[in-house]
Every structure is written in C-alpha cells, then in structure tokens.
From TrEMBL:
Residues 1-23 form the signal peptide. Transmembrane segments: none annotated. Pfam families: TraK_C, TraK_N. It comes from Candidatus Lambdaproteobacteria bacterium RIFOXYD2_FULL_56_26. Keywords: Signal. Residues 142-250 form the TraK C-terminal domain. Residues 35-128 form the TraK N-terminal domain. The keyword Signal applies. This is DUF4412 domain-containing protein. Residues 260-285 are annotated as: Disordered.
Length: 285
C-alpha cells in the first residue's frame, strides 16, 4: 500500500562493609519499578531489610545464586521474592548485608543476569522485561495475519486510546514544528513497533486564533514524517486556545509514496501531490 489514510479519531473514544542499626532511616532512592533486560549484566540496588519483588511476564521457573550469601528466595508463578537475611553482631545488634551478589533468573526460558547491591532502601519491584528480539517476534506475530490497512488502523487505534502494548517502545518528543502562522505544533511522542517497519508520531496542535481550519494534506510533509502511510486528525476546526491531536503512521526505510486520504474531507482518494506549502508562515485563508 502506498498512501495516507485519514481516520476520524472520534470513533475510538472508547541494590564498605558496614553494620547499621534498624533505627537508621532508609536512604533516599527512587522507588519506581526497575526494568532489567536479558543477555546483559544488570546492576541494580535492592533493599537489605525488606522483601524485593521480581515480576516475569509469563513463568518465573528458576533462579541461581550463591547459598553463602544468606538469601531467602521464593518463586511462585510469575513472581519471585528476594530477601537478604540479617545477622547478629557480638552485642546482639542486627547486621545487614551490603556486599554485592549475583542472581540469575529464568523467565520463560530467557536468562536475566543481575548484579545486586543490598542497601538501606525500601523494597524494590523489578520487572524482567522483554529484549529486542522477543519484542520483535511478539510484534510480528500480532501483526502478521492482518492486511496492511488493518495493521495501520490497529496502530492508530492503540496509540489514540493510549493502550500501548508492552513490546512497543515510547520516546518523548518536545520538538516544535513551525510551519503555519497561528498554529503551534509540538511532537508529543514517538511509538516504535519493533520488527514491524512502522512507527507512530503523535503531535499536539494549538491554534492562536479563531476559525483555524485543518486538513490532512497540510501535514503530509517531510517536516512531520519522512514517509507517512496514514494521517489521523481530530478535530478539523480550532478556535483560539483549542487543541487537536495529529497521529501519523510512518513506514521506515521506504521511499515516500502518494498520500491516500480517507474521511470527511474528501472521501477515499489518492492525491497526486503533497501540499506545496502555500500556507507556510502565511495566514491561512
């Protein structure tokens, strides 16, 4: 398929050796979940006081570690629990572990090697994430049975509804595109679907005046996407301060093709040329 499809978005609104006392407060540490990848050594901190939680997408079947490290490790289905056991000093005070140790998890047949450092921090959640090869395979399996039109519609719908599958990579934007007077355009994010040959770019448009009429062909330009396959824009009319969402599906590593516009603004048709920039930095009629 060569072309650009317009989809009315409104249809889819649906872890020095030392001992520390228990009274010592935890170190300040970002307590967001940690994501680790297979096939590399991941260095992470874990709590040496509380139980740490490991999560596998499917089945967490085995773990290898040195029994000399005085660890308590439990596996249950998709979950694993790791706790560093404390010792007692000569005077009976608790002594917490601080030396690094190695953990190797088997998550659904994929090995994850972790070099962990026990610290005085809160319990950590560790996500055993899919590697690039796994994500590509999963994406290909999901998209392969569909036609190209169906794949493109599926990409647009998932991004618009913010239902991004685990295997898709999201990078933040922040880039501004200044082409049309009175219209602020900013790239919000890019969604890469590994192995599919596609990515989706999401822009936010904001009008500086009343009565700004939009149409898809204004954004069929290399400044927005090198090879757009589909454009979804909603709404088409903006007054001052109002915003619109622009989604563009871009095919990677392919020459630019003719845009196919589908929607209210012109039925289903393939235009013979991209817009020439008549409205660039000029007041739109």
């Amino acid at each position: 398929m060569k072309g650009t499809i317009r989809i009315p978005l409104i249809l889819w609104v649906g872890l020095v050796l030392a001992s520390t006392a228990l009274a010592k407060p935890p170190e300040k540490e970002d307590n967001l979940p940690l994501e680790v990848l297979p096939d590399i050594t991941n260095e992470i901190p874990l709590s040496n006081r509380q139980t740490n939680w490991f999560r596998c997408k499917e089945s967490l079947s085995d773990v290898a570690y040195s029994k000399e490290k005085n660890l308590e490790v439990t596996l249950k289905g998709k979950n694993g629990y790791v706790k560093f056991l404390e010792k007692r000093g000569e005077n009976g005070e608790p002594v917490f572990q601080t030396g690094q140790t190695e953990l190797i998890f088997n998550c659904s047949g994929t090995m994850y090697k972790l070099l962990v450092t026990p610290k005085n921090i809160s319990s950590r959640t560790v996500l055993l994430a899919q590697g690039l090869g796994q994500r590509m395979e999963k994406n290909l399996i999901a998209l392969a049975p569909k036609s190209e039109d169906e794949r493109i519609l599926d990409l647009l719908k998932k991004v618009y509804l913010d239902r991004i599958p685990e295997g898709w990579e999201v990078s933040q934007g922040g880039t501004e595109v200044s082409l049309y007077k009175g219209l602020n355009v900013e790239l919000k994010r890019e969604v890469h679907v590994e192995g599919s040959g596609y990515k989706v770019l999401e822009y936010v448009l904001e009008s500086e005046r009343d009565g700004f009429e939009l149409e898809e062909k204004l954004f069929n330009r290399i400044e927005f996407a090198k090879n757009p396959m589909a454009i979804a824009l909603e709404p088409l009319h903006l007054d001052k301060g109002e915003k619109a969402r622009l989604l563009i599906v871009e095919r990677l590593n392919q020459d630019r093709g003719l845009p196919l516009v589908v929607g209210k603004t012109g039925g289903n048709k393939q235009t013979k040329e991209a817009p020439t920039g008549t409205f660039g930095n000029e007041e739109q009629p």
